[in-house]
Amino acid sequence: IVQLYVPLNWFGTYYRQIQKNFVDMENMFDLLKEPQEIIDAPGATDISVKRGAVEFNNVTFGYIPERLVLKNVTFSVPQGKTVALVGPSGSGKSTIIRLLFRFYDVETGSIVIDGQNIKTVTQESLRGSIGVVPQDTVLFNNTIMYNIKYGRLTAEEAEVIEAARAADIHDRISRFPEAYETKVGERGLRLSGGEKQRVAIARTLLKAPQIVLLDEATSALDTQTERNIQESLNKMCVNRTTIIVAHRLSTIIHADEILVLRDGEIVERGRHEHLIGQEGVYANMWKQQLEAKEEKPSIENSLEKS
Ligand code: ATP
Protein backbone atom coordinates (compact mmCIF):
# COMPACT_ATOMS: atom_id res chain seq x y z
CA ILE A 1 0.00 0.00 0.00
CA VAL A 2 2.64 2.45 1.01
CA GLN A 3 6.03 2.72 -0.58
CA LEU A 4 8.86 3.55 1.74
CA TYR A 5 12.32 4.29 0.54
CA VAL A 6 14.52 3.74 3.52
CA PRO A 7 17.89 2.11 4.06
CA LEU A 8 17.58 -1.58 4.70
CA ASN A 9 19.37 -1.46 8.00
CA TRP A 10 16.63 0.84 9.21
CA PHE A 11 14.22 -2.07 8.86
CA GLY A 12 16.49 -4.21 10.98
CA THR A 13 16.77 -1.66 13.71
CA TYR A 14 13.08 -0.89 13.63
CA TYR A 15 12.12 -4.54 13.65
CA ARG A 16 14.31 -5.34 16.64
CA GLN A 17 13.11 -2.31 18.51
CA ILE A 18 9.50 -3.26 17.93
CA GLN A 19 10.00 -6.86 18.90
CA LYS A 20 11.53 -5.58 22.08
CA ASN A 21 9.26 -2.75 23.00
CA PHE A 22 5.86 -3.20 21.41
CA VAL A 23 6.25 0.15 19.78
CA ASP A 24 3.93 0.29 16.87
CA MET A 25 2.88 -3.15 15.77
CA GLU A 26 0.17 -2.17 13.38
CA ASN A 27 2.54 -0.13 11.30
CA MET A 28 5.18 -2.76 11.40
CA PHE A 29 3.08 -5.32 9.62
CA ASP A 30 2.58 -2.89 6.81
CA LEU A 31 6.15 -1.72 6.69
CA LEU A 32 7.61 -5.17 6.71
CA LYS A 33 6.06 -7.34 4.08
CA GLU A 34 8.37 -10.15 4.92
CA PRO A 35 7.60 -13.68 5.98
CA GLN A 36 6.75 -13.97 9.64
CA GLU A 37 7.28 -16.78 12.06
CA ILE A 38 3.59 -17.09 12.59
CA ILE A 39 1.59 -18.59 9.78
CA ASP A 40 -2.14 -18.97 9.39
CA ALA A 41 -3.48 -22.43 10.11
CA PRO A 42 -4.63 -24.31 7.00
CA GLY A 43 -8.20 -23.30 6.31
CA ALA A 44 -8.07 -20.46 8.82
CA THR A 45 -11.16 -18.29 8.70
CA ASP A 46 -11.62 -14.64 9.55
CA ILE A 47 -12.34 -13.90 13.17
CA SER A 48 -15.73 -12.48 13.99
CA VAL A 49 -15.53 -10.01 16.81
CA LYS A 50 -18.92 -8.78 18.00
CA ARG A 51 -18.56 -8.41 21.74
CA GLY A 52 -14.80 -8.29 22.05
CA ALA A 53 -14.51 -10.59 25.06
CA VAL A 54 -10.90 -11.64 25.64
CA GLU A 55 -9.73 -14.71 27.56
CA PHE A 56 -6.28 -15.94 28.49
CA ASN A 57 -6.51 -19.54 29.67
CA ASN A 58 -3.45 -20.91 31.48
CA VAL A 59 -1.08 -19.24 29.07
CA THR A 60 2.55 -20.27 29.46
CA PHE A 61 5.12 -18.80 27.12
CA GLY A 62 8.84 -18.22 26.65
CA TYR A 63 10.71 -16.52 23.80
CA ILE A 64 13.24 -19.28 24.19
CA PRO A 65 12.19 -22.66 25.58
CA GLU A 66 14.63 -22.55 28.49
CA ARG A 67 13.15 -19.40 29.96
CA LEU A 68 9.47 -18.94 30.63
CA VAL A 69 8.32 -15.34 30.54
CA LEU A 70 4.65 -16.03 31.32
CA LYS A 71 3.60 -18.79 33.66
CA ASN A 72 0.06 -20.04 33.76
CA VAL A 73 -1.56 -16.68 33.14
CA THR A 74 -5.35 -16.74 33.31
CA PHE A 75 -7.70 -13.78 33.09
CA SER A 76 -10.68 -12.61 31.15
CA VAL A 77 -11.84 -9.22 29.99
CA PRO A 78 -15.60 -9.13 29.46
CA GLN A 79 -17.11 -7.02 26.70
CA GLY A 80 -16.41 -3.33 27.18
CA LYS A 81 -14.41 -3.76 30.39
CA THR A 82 -10.91 -2.58 31.20
CA VAL A 83 -8.07 -4.68 32.53
CA ALA A 84 -4.78 -3.07 33.53
CA LEU A 85 -1.42 -4.79 33.62
CA VAL A 86 1.14 -3.50 36.10
CA GLY A 87 4.41 -4.78 37.47
CA PRO A 88 8.14 -4.22 37.33
CA SER A 89 10.08 -3.95 34.10
CA GLY A 90 10.48 -7.36 32.53
CA SER A 91 7.54 -8.93 34.36
CA GLY A 92 5.76 -9.82 31.12
CA LYS A 93 3.23 -7.03 30.55
CA SER A 94 4.12 -6.28 26.95
CA THR A 95 4.45 -9.97 26.21
CA ILE A 96 0.76 -10.41 27.03
CA ILE A 97 -0.07 -7.69 24.53
CA ARG A 98 2.20 -9.19 21.87
CA LEU A 99 0.62 -12.60 22.29
CA LEU A 100 -2.85 -11.15 21.91
CA PHE A 101 -1.75 -9.58 18.64
CA ARG A 102 -0.31 -12.98 17.80
CA PHE A 103 3.24 -11.90 17.36
CA TYR A 104 4.06 -15.33 18.74
CA ASP A 105 2.06 -18.47 19.38
CA VAL A 106 1.59 -19.74 22.89
CA GLU A 107 2.97 -23.13 23.84
CA THR A 108 0.39 -24.16 26.36
CA GLY A 109 -2.94 -22.64 27.15
CA SER A 110 -5.05 -20.57 24.80
CA ILE A 111 -6.04 -17.05 23.94
CA VAL A 112 -9.66 -16.76 22.96
CA ILE A 113 -11.66 -13.83 21.58
CA ASP A 114 -15.45 -14.17 21.47
CA GLY A 115 -15.08 -17.93 21.72
CA GLN A 116 -12.50 -18.24 18.92
CA ASN A 117 -8.97 -19.41 19.60
CA ILE A 118 -6.75 -16.82 17.94
CA LYS A 119 -4.48 -19.57 16.60
CA THR A 120 -7.27 -20.71 14.32
CA VAL A 121 -8.13 -17.42 12.62
CA THR A 122 -6.35 -15.35 9.98
CA GLN A 123 -3.80 -12.94 11.34
CA GLU A 124 -5.06 -10.18 9.12
CA SER A 125 -8.59 -10.38 10.47
CA LEU A 126 -7.29 -10.62 14.04
CA ARG A 127 -5.14 -7.53 13.73
CA GLY A 128 -7.88 -5.73 11.88
CA SER A 129 -10.14 -6.20 14.90
CA ILE A 130 -7.75 -4.80 17.48
CA GLY A 131 -6.77 -1.16 17.88
CA VAL A 132 -3.38 -0.30 19.30
CA VAL A 133 -2.21 2.90 20.89
CA PRO A 134 1.51 2.31 21.38
CA GLN A 135 3.92 4.29 23.53
CA ASP A 136 5.51 5.76 20.50
CA THR A 137 3.54 6.10 17.32
CA VAL A 138 5.47 5.90 14.09
CA LEU A 139 4.37 8.37 11.46
CA PHE A 140 4.62 7.80 7.74
CA ASN A 141 6.41 10.42 5.68
CA ASN A 142 3.14 11.54 4.26
CA THR A 143 0.40 14.06 4.99
CA ILE A 144 -1.25 14.23 8.38
CA MET A 145 -4.46 13.34 6.52
CA TYR A 146 -2.94 10.07 5.33
CA ASN A 147 -1.44 9.37 8.72
CA ILE A 148 -4.83 9.51 10.42
CA LYS A 149 -6.64 7.82 7.57
CA TYR A 150 -4.26 4.90 7.99
CA GLY A 151 -6.69 3.67 10.67
CA ARG A 152 -9.19 2.96 7.87
CA LEU A 153 -7.91 3.76 4.42
CA THR A 154 -11.38 3.81 2.93
CA ALA A 155 -12.55 6.56 5.28
CA GLU A 156 -13.97 9.77 3.85
CA GLU A 157 -12.17 13.02 4.49
CA ALA A 158 -15.03 14.22 6.69
CA GLU A 159 -14.64 11.12 8.86
CA VAL A 160 -10.92 11.78 9.24
CA ILE A 161 -11.65 15.29 10.42
CA GLU A 162 -14.30 14.02 12.81
CA ALA A 163 -11.81 11.55 14.29
CA ALA A 164 -9.20 14.29 14.60
CA ARG A 165 -11.74 16.44 16.44
CA ALA A 166 -12.60 13.61 18.82
CA ALA A 167 -8.90 13.05 19.47
CA ASP A 168 -8.58 16.76 20.12
CA ILE A 169 -5.98 17.43 17.46
CA HIS A 170 -8.09 19.08 14.78
CA ASP A 171 -7.45 22.65 15.92
CA ARG A 172 -3.75 22.00 16.05
CA ILE A 173 -3.76 20.55 12.52
CA SER A 174 -5.72 23.55 11.26
CA ARG A 175 -2.79 25.71 12.28
CA PHE A 176 -0.24 23.58 10.41
CA PRO A 177 1.19 25.37 7.33
CA GLU A 178 -0.93 23.35 4.92
CA ALA A 179 -3.48 22.08 7.42
CA TYR A 180 -4.39 18.45 6.67
CA GLU A 181 -2.12 18.39 3.63
CA THR A 182 0.97 19.14 5.72
CA LYS A 183 3.67 16.50 5.43
CA VAL A 184 4.67 15.02 8.79
CA GLY A 185 7.18 12.42 9.95
CA GLU A 186 10.94 12.30 9.73
CA ARG A 187 11.09 14.42 6.63
CA GLY A 188 8.18 16.70 7.36
CA LEU A 189 6.76 18.54 10.31
CA ARG A 190 7.88 16.84 13.50
CA LEU A 191 5.10 16.20 15.97
CA SER A 192 5.49 16.11 19.73
CA GLY A 193 4.97 12.94 21.76
CA GLY A 194 1.52 14.08 22.79
CA GLU A 195 0.54 14.95 19.22
CA LYS A 196 1.68 11.58 17.97
CA GLN A 197 -0.42 9.90 20.61
CA ARG A 198 -3.40 11.88 19.43
CA VAL A 199 -2.77 10.68 15.88
CA ALA A 200 -2.84 7.12 17.24
CA ILE A 201 -6.11 7.86 19.04
CA ALA A 202 -7.65 9.35 15.90
CA ARG A 203 -6.53 6.32 13.87
CA THR A 204 -8.09 3.99 16.40
CA LEU A 205 -11.34 5.95 16.40
CA LEU A 206 -11.50 5.60 12.62
CA LYS A 207 -10.73 1.91 12.82
CA ALA A 208 -13.45 1.53 15.48
CA PRO A 209 -12.30 -1.82 16.86
CA GLN A 210 -14.09 -3.68 19.65
CA ILE A 211 -10.78 -4.28 21.39
CA VAL A 212 -8.16 -1.69 22.24
CA LEU A 213 -4.63 -2.26 23.50
CA LEU A 214 -3.00 0.66 25.15
CA ASP A 215 0.62 0.98 26.12
CA GLU A 216 0.84 3.98 28.36
CA ALA A 217 3.71 6.32 27.59
CA THR A 218 6.47 6.25 30.16
CA SER A 219 8.05 9.45 28.95
CA ALA A 220 6.56 12.29 30.90
CA LEU A 221 4.30 14.72 29.14
CA ASP A 222 3.48 17.86 31.06
CA THR A 223 0.62 17.43 33.48
CA GLN A 224 -1.96 19.40 31.55
CA THR A 225 -1.18 17.60 28.29
CA GLU A 226 -1.34 14.32 30.11
CA ARG A 227 -4.75 15.10 31.52
CA ASN A 228 -6.10 16.13 28.17
CA ILE A 229 -4.76 13.01 26.55
CA GLN A 230 -6.20 10.92 29.34
CA GLU A 231 -9.60 12.37 28.53
CA SER A 232 -9.26 11.48 24.85
CA LEU A 233 -8.10 8.00 25.76
CA ASN A 234 -11.02 7.52 28.13
CA LYS A 235 -13.45 8.55 25.40
CA MET A 236 -11.81 6.15 22.97
CA CYS A 237 -12.13 3.26 25.42
CA VAL A 238 -15.81 3.74 26.27
CA ASN A 239 -17.71 0.56 25.35
CA ARG A 240 -14.54 -1.06 24.06
CA THR A 241 -12.75 -3.96 25.67
CA THR A 242 -9.50 -2.42 26.82
CA ILE A 243 -6.20 -3.84 27.97
CA ILE A 244 -3.80 -1.25 29.24
CA VAL A 245 -0.15 -1.58 30.20
CA ALA A 246 0.00 1.04 32.91
CA HIS A 247 3.00 2.85 34.29
CA ARG A 248 1.15 5.49 36.25
CA LEU A 249 -1.20 3.86 38.69
CA SER A 250 -3.29 7.02 38.88
CA THR A 251 -4.68 6.27 35.41
CA ILE A 252 -6.07 2.86 36.34
CA ILE A 253 -7.89 3.59 39.59
CA HIS A 254 -11.15 2.84 37.81
CA ALA A 255 -10.02 -0.25 35.91
CA ASP A 256 -12.38 -3.21 36.31
CA GLU A 257 -9.48 -5.46 37.18
CA ILE A 258 -5.80 -4.82 37.81
CA LEU A 259 -3.36 -7.68 37.28
CA VAL A 260 -0.07 -7.36 39.11
CA LEU A 261 2.66 -9.32 37.37
CA ARG A 262 5.98 -10.42 38.75
CA ASP A 263 8.36 -12.73 36.90
CA GLY A 264 5.63 -13.75 34.51
CA GLU A 265 3.09 -14.65 37.15
CA ILE A 266 -0.01 -12.87 38.34
CA VAL A 267 0.75 -12.30 42.00
CA GLU A 268 -2.19 -10.06 42.88
CA ARG A 269 -5.44 -9.15 41.17
CA GLY A 270 -8.52 -7.06 41.83
CA ARG A 271 -9.72 -3.50 41.80
CA HIS A 272 -7.64 -0.62 43.08
CA GLU A 273 -9.26 -0.33 46.51
CA HIS A 274 -9.09 -4.07 47.06
CA LEU A 275 -5.37 -4.16 46.23
CA ILE A 276 -4.62 -1.18 48.43
CA GLY A 277 -6.35 -3.03 51.27
CA GLN A 278 -4.14 -6.06 50.70
CA GLU A 279 -1.03 -4.08 51.57
CA GLY A 280 1.04 -6.16 49.17
CA VAL A 281 3.00 -5.51 45.99
CA TYR A 282 0.44 -3.13 44.49
CA ALA A 283 -0.03 -1.14 47.68
CA ASN A 284 3.73 -0.69 47.82
CA MET A 285 3.91 0.49 44.24
CA TRP A 286 1.13 2.96 44.98
CA LYS A 287 2.93 4.28 48.04
CA GLN A 288 6.13 4.72 46.03
CA GLN A 289 4.36 6.65 43.31
CA LEU A 290 2.72 8.93 45.86
CA GLU A 291 6.06 9.61 47.50
CA ALA A 292 7.68 10.31 44.14
CA LYS A 293 4.96 12.88 43.45
CA GLU A 294 5.43 14.56 46.79
CA GLU A 295 9.12 14.93 46.13
CA LYS A 296 8.31 16.90 43.02
CA PRO A 297 5.98 19.62 44.24
CA SER A 298 6.26 21.48 40.93
CA ILE A 299 4.33 18.72 39.26
CA GLU A 300 0.72 19.06 40.15
CA ASN A 301 -0.72 16.08 41.88
CA SER A 302 -2.88 14.51 39.21
CA LEU A 303 -4.25 11.87 41.52
CA GLU A 304 -7.08 13.94 42.96
CA LYS A 305 -8.49 14.42 39.52
CA SER A 306 -8.71 10.72 38.69
P1 ATP B 1 8.61 -3.15 30.59
O1 ATP B 1 7.76 -2.55 31.65
O2 ATP B 1 10.04 -2.85 30.79
O3 ATP B 1 8.14 -2.90 29.19
P2 ATP B 1 7.40 -5.79 30.56
O4 ATP B 1 6.74 -6.15 31.84
O5 ATP B 1 6.52 -5.33 29.46
O6 ATP B 1 8.57 -4.76 30.82
P3 ATP B 1 8.23 -7.83 28.69
O7 ATP B 1 8.64 -6.89 27.63
O8 ATP B 1 6.95 -8.56 28.50
O9 ATP B 1 8.20 -7.09 30.10
O10 ATP B 1 9.41 -8.85 28.89
C1 ATP B 1 9.33 -10.00 29.72
C2 ATP B 1 10.63 -10.77 29.66
O11 ATP B 1 10.81 -11.29 28.36
C3 ATP B 1 11.87 -9.93 29.94
O12 ATP B 1 12.73 -10.70 30.74
C4 ATP B 1 12.48 -9.70 28.59
O13 ATP B 1 13.87 -9.62 28.69
C5 ATP B 1 12.07 -10.93 27.81
N1 ATP B 1 11.88 -10.63 26.38
C6 ATP B 1 11.10 -9.67 25.85
N2 ATP B 1 11.14 -9.69 24.51
C7 ATP B 1 11.97 -10.69 24.17
C8 ATP B 1 12.43 -11.22 22.92
N3 ATP B 1 12.01 -10.73 21.75
N4 ATP B 1 13.29 -12.26 22.96
C9 ATP B 1 13.73 -12.78 24.14
N5 ATP B 1 13.32 -12.32 25.34
C10 ATP B 1 12.47 -11.29 25.38
UniProtKB/TrEMBL annotation:
Localisation per UniProt entry: Cell membrane; Early endosome membrane; Endoplasmic reticulum membrane; Endosome membrane
Keyword set, alphabetical order: ATP-binding, Cell membrane, Disulfide bond, Endoplasmic reticulum, Endosome, Golgi apparatus, Lysosome, Membrane, Mitochondrion, Mitochondrion outer membrane, Nucleotide-binding, Secreted, Translocase, Transmembrane, Transmembrane helix, Transport
Residues of the ABC transporter domain: 54-288
Source organism superkingdom: Eukaryota
Parts of the chain that traverse the membrane: 1-15
A single Gene Ontology CC term: mitochondrial outer membrane
Molecular function via GO: ABC-type heme transporter activity; ATP binding; ATP hydrolysis activity; heme binding
Main location: membrane
Oligomer status and interactors: Homodimer.
Family membership noted in the UniProt record: Belongs to the ABC transporter superfamily. ABCB family. Heavy Metal importer (TC 3.A.1.210) subfamily.
Protein name per Swiss-Prot or TrEMBL: ATP-binding cassette sub-family B member 6
Organism: Brassicogethes aeneus (Rape pollen beetle)
Span covered, complete protein: 341 to 646 of 648
